[in-house]
């Protein structure tokens, strides 16, 4: 009898302890969203998809239950150490990323654990939508002479825009919408190896009416309120790839401390080419000055020796490039 009374006393003490400390329970977790979501798809294959426009604020909250109170950790791509965040929000209940970038899209995991049972983990995939300005590049080909009178000239206009979701392109000549089959002199196609990434407009055997303003419109169908973007290229009978000339010797041998000026001029190209300077040392020296086609290196040092190149581009054909090597004599000791 005494034994039964003792056991009952111990049970009473245990119940009283539970009342004081709360019921021990393993963790459970749920992710809710706020911030600027375009769309959130509910559970699908054990994850949710959160769509957001680049530059908006991502805000995810991890709601947890359990006793003792679980510790929370946000991770990305299944919690790989290399992909853990480097800010204080990693251990917070709410994950906040202001002005989210396209590179920050992916699958985010909330993990909660309190030492009881297995950790609770829920995930949500973040899909960042964006649409960059489209660019047009132009390539020309000259066919064989026809009846000894003229050469057949064909022009290819290639439109490219980085986007998520995939972009749709449309071509216009002036106010006219160009479609496949609408003009015998026009062909519109997507290269097989870049399906969906670009749209090429082919102008076969150029005619007078083909010299016009062409616009490429890139669209993601207004998802996330992203507006269409367009670019215009003016095709004329003078359209040509760039050509340049360097007004310097090669190589250039100088003394330390000497000021060096490299001059690059355009000798052809329509539209007028844009000139830039690059260096074999990855970047131009901090003290260098670029004005038009002239690059000035004041008080040059041996560290600034290398190959310097002038590059001209105008979206027609391949960029033109001319280079020279600067050799800096050894400093006297």
Automatic annotation (TrEMBL):
Organism annotation: Notothenia coriiceps
Protein name as annotated: MAM domain-containing glycosylphosphatidylinositol anchor protein 2-like
Signal peptide: 1-17
Keyword GTP-binding: no
Residue ranges annotated for the Ig-like domain, each copy included: 27-127, 134-219, 242-327
GO molecular function, one term: axon guidance receptor activity
InterPro entries noted in UniProt: Cell_Adh-Cytoskel_Orgn, Ig-like_dom, Ig-like_dom_sf, Ig-like_fold, Ig_sub, Ig_sub2
Matching CDD domains: Ig (cd00096)
Keyword Signal on entry: yes
Highest classification ranks of the organism: Eukaryota, Metazoa, Chordata, Craniata, Vertebrata
Gene Ontology terms describing biological process: homophilic cell adhesion via plasma membrane adhesion molecules; synapse organization
Gene name linked to the record: LOC104956717
Record's GO cellular component terms: axon; neuronal cell body; plasma membrane
Keywords: Signal
SMART domains: IG, IGc2
């Amino acid at each position: 009898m005494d034994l039964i009374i003792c056991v009952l006393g111990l049970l009473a003490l245990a119940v009283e302890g539970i009342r004081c400390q709360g019921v021990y329970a393993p963790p459970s977790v749920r992710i809710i969203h706020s911030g600027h979501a375009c769309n959130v798809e509910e559970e699908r294959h054990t994850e949710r998809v959160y769509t957001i426009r680049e530059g908006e604020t991502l805000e995810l909250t991890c709601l947890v239950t359990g006793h003792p109170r679980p510790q929370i950790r946000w991770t990305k791509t299944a919690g790989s150490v290399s992909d853990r965040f480097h800010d204080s929000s990693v251990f917070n209940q709410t994950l906040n990323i202001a002005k989210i970038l396209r590179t920050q899209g992916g699958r985010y995991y909330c993990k909660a654990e309190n030492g009881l049972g297995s950790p609770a983990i829920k995930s949500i995939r973040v899909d960042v939508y964006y649409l960059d300005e489209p660019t047009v590049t132009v390539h020309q080909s000259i066919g064989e002479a026809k009846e000894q009178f003229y050469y057949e000239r064909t022009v290819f206009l290639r439109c490219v825009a980085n986007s998520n979701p995939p972009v749709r392109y449309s071509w216009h000549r002036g106010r006219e919408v160009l479609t496949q089959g609408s003009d015998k002199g026009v062909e519109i196609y997507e290269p097989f190896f870049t399906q969906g990434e670009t749209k090429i407009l082919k102008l076969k055997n150029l005619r007078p009416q083909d010299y016009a303003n062409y616009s490429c419109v890139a669209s993601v169908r207004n998802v996330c309120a992203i507006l269409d973007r367009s670019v215009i290229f003016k095709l004329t009978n003078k359209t040509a790839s760039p050509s340049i000339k360097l007004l310097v010797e090669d190589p250039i041998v100088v003394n330390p401390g000497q000021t060096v000026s490299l001059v690059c001029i355009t000798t052809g190209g329509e539209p007028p080419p844009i000139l830039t300077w690059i260096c074999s040392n990855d970047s131009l020296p901090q003290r260098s000055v670029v004005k038009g086609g002239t690059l000035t290196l004041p008080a040059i040092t041996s560290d600034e020796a290398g190959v310097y190149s002038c590059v001209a581009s105008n979206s027609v054909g391949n960029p033109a490039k001319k280079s020279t090597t600067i050799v800096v004599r050894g400093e006297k000791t």
